[in-house]
UniProtKB/TrEMBL annotation:
Residues of the CENP-V/GFA domain: 2-114
Family: Belongs to the Gfa family.
Keywords linked to the UniProt accession: Lyase, Metal-binding, Zinc
GO molecular function terms listed in the Swiss-Prot or TrEMBL record: carbon-sulfur lyase activity; metal ion binding
Organism, scientific name: Roseovarius azorensis
Designated name of the protein: Uncharacterized conserved protein
InterPro entries to which the protein is assigned, alphabetical: CENP-V/GFA, Mss4-like_sf
Length: 123
């Protein structure tokens, strides 16, 4: 089980299943919303319990992004046609015991950094 929260603590969540797909997203939307990149993993919707106010932003026709309306922490990503929800790895209490599996949308990454950790990358 993993516990997490936003910066101000108004939104908390508990993940009751083993997280899957730990990744770093370098897409333009994640860069703009987070200020750099977004590390996340996902579980089935039934395996994540969220408490507190979450504001949702319809980022595209395919997905929405959940954040704390008080402190602005970007916490969740949810595709409209999937029964899973991604959550921010940086919001989890330590230790997580998780390891990154991949970097995604690297073709859209910022030009001010390199990815040199040896983790697989996809465009």
């Amino acid at each position: 089980m993993h516990k997490g929260s936003c910066l101000c603590g108004d939104v908390t969540f508990i993940v009751s299943a083993p997280p899957e797909g730990a990744s770093v997203c370098h897409c333009g939307q994640c860069r703009r919303q987070s200020g750099h990149l977004w590390a996340s993993a996902y579980v089935s919707e039934e395996a994540i319990e969220v408490q507190g106010p979450v504001a949702w932003y319809e980022a595209s026709a395919m997905a929405r992004r959940g954040f704390c309306p008080r402190c602005g922490s970007f916490l969740f990503w949810k595709a409209h046609d999937e029964n899973t929800m991604s959550f921010a790895l940086g919001a989890l209490d330590l230790p997580t015991g998780l390891k990154l599996e991949k970097h995604i949308f690297v073709a859209d990454k910022g030009d001010y950094y390199d990815i040199a950790d040896g983790v697989p990358q996809t465009d």
